[in-house]
């Protein structure tokens, strides 16, 4: 991962979650599908910064769910301009591949945002603890006994805190400020989608 001197990792991402259009007049916040998927793809690059092959299954899982949502969007673009419309229209057709993909993607995003928020807030905490706590709060309850050890291995393989933040950029105050702004956008998207996906109209 390379960026100009004084730059940060966030300079290299195509889109961050605080750049995803949200129409607050609809659906408690109708989220634009295209930009949300771009921001989600950009987020998976963070697992490369974490640097361990143990995170590859986490990255692949998120990538697979992004693909399911994008395939539905390409198949029915007019019905899929927002994530909420995409879900409603897919479920009307008695299918739920993309909807299920979105449920799992949001769980993965929630896990990532909770881990990084906890770590940013607690400046002496190692990433392994932040990620392990976030896993317990989010994904763990949905995972089978076969999947849990794979994710546990990833939590144990996180780099030291200082090394991770250095990889995000030389200018640490700027890194922390931009990570915070990025997380605020991510948390907003996740919050809206969790509420929607928990509602009756998103069930199959």
UniProtKB/TrEMBL annotation:
Spans through the membrane: none
Keywords: Transport
All copies of domain Glycolipid transfer protein, residue ranges: 31-169
A GO CC term attached to the entry: membrane
Signal peptide region: none
Classification via SUPFAM superfamilies: Glycolipid transfer protein, GLTP
Pfam families, sorted: GLTP (PF08718)
GO MF annotation terms: ceramide 1-phosphate binding; ceramide 1-phosphate transfer activity
Name of the protein this chain belongs to: Glycolipid transfer protein domain-containing protein
Organism whose genome encodes this protein: Zasmidium cellare ATCC 36951
């Amino acid at each position: 991962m390379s960026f100009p001197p004084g730059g940060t990792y966030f300079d290299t991402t195509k889109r961050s979650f605080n750049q995803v259009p949200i129409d607050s007049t609809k659906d408690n916040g109708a989220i634009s599908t295209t930009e949300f998927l771009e921001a989600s793809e950009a987020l998976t690059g963070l697992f490369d910064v974490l640097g361990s092959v143990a995170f590859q299954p986490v990255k692949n899982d998120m990538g697979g769910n992004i693909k399911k949502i994008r395939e539905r969007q390409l198949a029915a673009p007019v019905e899929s301009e927002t994530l909420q419309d995409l879900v409603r229209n897919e479920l009307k057709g008695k299918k739920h591949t993309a909807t299920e993909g979105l449920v799992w993607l949001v769980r993965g995003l929630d896990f990532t945002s909770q881990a990084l928020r906890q770590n940013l807030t607690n400046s002496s905490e190692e990433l392994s603890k932040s990620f392990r706590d976030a896993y317990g709060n989010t994904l763990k309850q949905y995972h089978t006994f076969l999947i849990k050890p794979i994710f546990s291995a990833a939590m144990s393989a996180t780099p030291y805190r200082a090394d991770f933040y250095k990889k995000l950029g030389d200018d640490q105050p700027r890194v922390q400020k931009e990570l915070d702004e990025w997380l605020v956008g991510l948390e907003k998207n996740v919050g809206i989608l969790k509420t929607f996906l928990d509602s009756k109209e998103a069930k199959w």
